[in-house]
Write a structure and sequence with these properties.
The chain is 33% helix and 7% strand. By secondary structure, it is mainly α. Helix 2 packs across helix 3.
Length: 108
């Protein structure tokens, strides 16, 4: 099992344009269920190195204090956003521990 930061980074690198995941889904896919806050902390301390705008709260809410930039980036990728929430959130398919996600979770 990868250390938490490496596991989170691997999941974030697997996201493509138009993909939207929750903090909890990133933690779960990384092999650390119930560590959603750790994902938020990781993103907050990595200086934008990862596609932070593709990660939202469980209810689709955008990152507090970064709503405008996150909304603009998501819209540029074809994601529908309304009143600072992603529209049409769907659960991302879990992936096998040895490979990439089976399907991409997208709100397109």
């Amino acid at each position: 099992m990868l250390p938490l930061p490496d596991a989170i980074a691997a999941v974030l690198h697997s996201l493509g344009p138009g993909d939207v995941v929750t903090y909890g889904e990133v933690a779960e896919e990384a092999g650390y269920p119930r560590r959603a806050r750790a994902v938020g902390h990781f993103l907050a301390t990595t200086d934008g190195e990862f596609p932070w705008w593709r990660v939202v709260a469980a209810n689709g809410r955008l990152a507090p204090g970064h709503e405008q930039e996150q909304e603009a980036r998501l819209r540029a990728e074809g994601v529908e956003v309304d009143e600072r929430r992603v529209i049409g959130m769907r659960r991302r398919a879990r992936h096998a521990a040895s490979g990439p996600p089976v399907t991409r979770r997208s709100s397109r």
